[in-house]
Design a protein that fits this description.
Helix content is about 50%, strand content about 10%. Strand 4, helix 4 and strand 5 form a beta-alpha-beta unit. Helix 1 runs antiparallel to helix 2.
């Protein structure tokens, strides 16, 4: 793809060629004048756009560098600590139709949701067997999870998303 500077150079070059072709008898003088006017306006538009290019690039760079505005993760979003533990509540392939799965405990699931929420991850494309389910969430946490996934500033997780690097059963 051409840069704006290259496009402006091309317009200038085309203007020079028009002057050469204008002397040829086959071109209508009105068409030549209209073409010159249009190219002149195009050149001005490209020059104006080139003047705005650095601020556009600076804005994009700032947006890319800006951290995700993570909401606070309230402990009340999860089941009580007494209920949490390392007992498996979804074993491997039970939760998924995708041919893969993770053994989910409440502690692992809580860690997964904390990671997703603090890093701005949309998980609608993740394989079902790699999702922890909502067993670890309180009613308030479930509502928060649903509202969180409606945000438009989230990064969509890939199908094989496994942020905790848990063993995947195939």
């Amino acid at each position: 793809m051409a840069t704006l500077a290259e496009l402006i150079e091309n317009v200038v070059s085309i203007k020079k060629h028009i002057d050469v072709y204008a002397a040829l008898p086959r071109l209508n003088p009105k068409q030549t004048a209209a073409l010159r006017t249009n190219l002149g306006q195009l050149g001005k538009n490209l020059a104006a756009l080139a003047a705005y290019q650095p601020p556009i690039e600076a804005t994009r760079a700032a947006q890319d560098a800006a951290p995700f505005d993570a909401p606070p993760v309230d402990p009340a979003y999860f089941v009580s600590a007494a209920d949490a533990g390392d007992d498996v509540y979804i074993a491997g392939l039970e939760g998924g139709l995708s041919g893969e799965g993770v053994d989910w405990t409440l502690n692992r699931a809580i860690g997964w949701f904390k990671y997703v929420w603090t890093n701005g991850i949309a998980y609608h494309a993740v394989a079902p067997g790699l999702l922890p389910g909502s067993h670890c969430l309180s009613a308030e946490g479930y509502k928060f999870a649903v509202d969180f996934q409606r945000r438009d500033d989230l990064t969509v997780a890939p199908h094989d998303f496994n942020p905790l690097n848990l063993q995947v059963k195939a």
